[in-house]
Amino acid sequence: MEYPYEIEMKVRDYECDIQGIVNNSVYQNYLEHARHEYLRSNEVSFAEMHNRGVDAVVARIEMAFKTPLRPGDDFVVKINVQKEGVKYVFHQVIYRKADMKLSLKARVDAVVTVNGKLVSAVPEFDKLVMNS
Amino acid sequence: MEYPYEIEMKVRDYECDIQGIVNNSVYQNYLEHARHEYLRSNEVSFAEMHNRGVDAVVARIEMAFKTPLRPGDDFVVKINVQKEGVKYVFHQVIYRKADMKLSLKARVDAVVTVNGKLVSAVPEFDKLVMNS
Amino acid sequence: MEYPYEIEMKVRDYECDIQGIVNNSVYQNYLEHARHEYLRSNEVSFAEMHNRGVDAVVARIEMAFKTPLRPGDDFVVKINVQKEGVKYVFHQVIYRKADMKLSLKARVDAVVTVNGKLVSAVPEFDKLVMNS
Amino acid sequence: MEYPYEIEMKVRDYECDIQGIVNNSVYQNYLEHARHEYLRSNEVSFAEMHNRGVDAVVARIEMAFKTPLRPGDDFVVKINVQKEGVKYVFHQVIYRKADMKLSLKARVDAVVTVNGKLVSAVPEFDKLVMNS
C-alpha cells in the first residue's frame, strides 16, 4: 500500500504513562491529528467544516499495537484513504523514525453527515481518495 | 454475552471536543479505567503489578462507535474477559444510562509480560477469566 | 474559608505520568470538572450556557501543588466562589481522602462573556457566590 | 525579559473543547513540553533524569490567559529560567504566530528532588539558568 500523505511528530513526555511508554489512547490523538492535517493540506479545515454542518464521524477503529513509542521518540504517521460504499476508510501506519520500525497499524472507518444526516460522499474527502 | 463487572462513570466537559461530543480517543480512557478498576476489585493494582515487573500490554483494539456520549451523560462500562491462546480478550461495552442505548462496543486483546518477556498466563488475569 | 460545594473523584491510571503521579495538567481537569458539576447542581449546564452564547472564561489560575495524588487515590475537590469586581473568583482545594492531606490549593479567576462581550455579572454565577 | 529558548508548536483539534478553543489545561501540556525540550536541547532527558532518581517537581504555577488559541493556530513557547533560593523559576510566554499576540503568560516554580529528598540545586537546571 502506498501512503500519499505523511506527517512527522514527536512524543511528548506528558503523553507517556506509568509504564514509561505512550498511553494507548494517545495513538488515537496522533491518528486524528494526522487526518486533520491531511485535510488541511488540501485547504480543508475540520473546524470550519463543522461550522458548515459537515461532520466526519468515526464509525469504527481497528488498531494493532506493535512497537511502543517512548519519551522523545520521533515518528511519522502515514495515510491512505479508500472509499468502500458510504465509508471513507483511512489506512494509517505509524513508524518510529530512529529505525523505521512499525509502531502502529490502524484502519479507521469514517462516514460523513451533513446537518446530522448521513451522506454518501463529500468532495472534501473524495479528493483524499483520489490521491491514494 | 454476560458481563460480570460493570462500572458507572459520567462524561466530563473537558473530554468533549469541538463537535460537542466525547472525543473518540477518550473512550479508550474509559475502557482502560474500567479494566483497571475491575482488577482493583480483585485486589490487584495495575501500578503495583508494574512495579513487580508484570505488565499487561494491549496488542490490538477494535472499537465500534454507536451513540456518541455528550456533556453530562452518565454511562456504564461492562466487561467480560476470555482467554484465547496467550491472549486475554476483553469484551467491553458502554451504555448511556438515560436510555441504555449502546454507545460503544469494543474488543481489546492484551498479553502479559513479566520483566519484558511474554508469558502465557498470570493468576491476576486468570481470575478475571474465571468470573466470565 | 468554608466550601459550600464538594465532589469526590478518584485518580485514573491514565492520568499519571512517568513519575508515577498525576500529571500537573490533570489537576486543572479536576478543578474544571468540579466547577461545572457545581453549576450543574444548580441546574446550570456549561454546554447549554455556551449554546445560549454565555461563556465563562478563565482569566487567571494560581495553583500550589502540595501532596501529589497517585494511582487509585480517592480525593475530594471543594469550592468557594467570591465576587471581586467583574471577576468570579473560585477558591478550590483538593484533599486526598485517605488522610485528608491537602493535595492542591488553587485560585481561579473567571469572567463571563455574552455573545463575546464581557458582562459584569450573570445570575447563574451570582447564585454560586450567594452560597459561599 | 529575554527568552533564550523557544519552540514552535501547532494546535491540534483534539486539544480544543466545546467552546471551540484550546482547553485551559492543555496550556500546561504546552508549557511542560517546552521545558522538557529545553532540557533536551541541553542533552538532558526528563525521563532519564527520573530513572537516575532526579525529579523536577512543580511547586506552583501562575497562568494569565490572554488570547485563546484556536484549531490550526501556530504558536511559539518561550522560556527564561531564574534561580530564587531552592526554586527554579520558569518564566514562560506563548505567542500566536499569525500576529505575535500574547496568548499566555506563566510563571512555574519548580524544585528538584534526588531520591525523594529536596536538593538546593542540580547542574542540569543550573545550566538553563546560566543561559538566561
Describe this protein's structure.
- The structure is a homotetramer of 132-residue chains.
- Chain A has 132 residues and is an alpha+beta fold.
- Chain A has one domain (5-131): Thiol Ester Dehydrase, Chain A.
- The first copy, chain A, is built from 3 helices and 6 strands; from the N terminus they run E-H-H-E-E-E-E-E-H.
- Chain A has helices spanning 24-41, 46-51, 123-131; strands at residues 5-10, 54-65, 74-84, 87-96, 101-114, 117-119.
- In chain A, strands 1, 2, 3, 4, 5 and 6 form a 6-stranded antiparallel beta sheet that branches.
- The termini of chain A are close together.
- The model of chain A has no long low-confidence stretch (mean pLDDT 96).
- Chains in contact: A-B, A-C, A-D, B-C, B-D, C-D.
- Chain A binds chain B through residues 18-19, 23-26, 28-29, 32, 46-47, 50, 55, 57-65, 68, and chain B through 18-19, 23-26, 28-29, 32, 46-47, 50, 55, 57-65, 68.
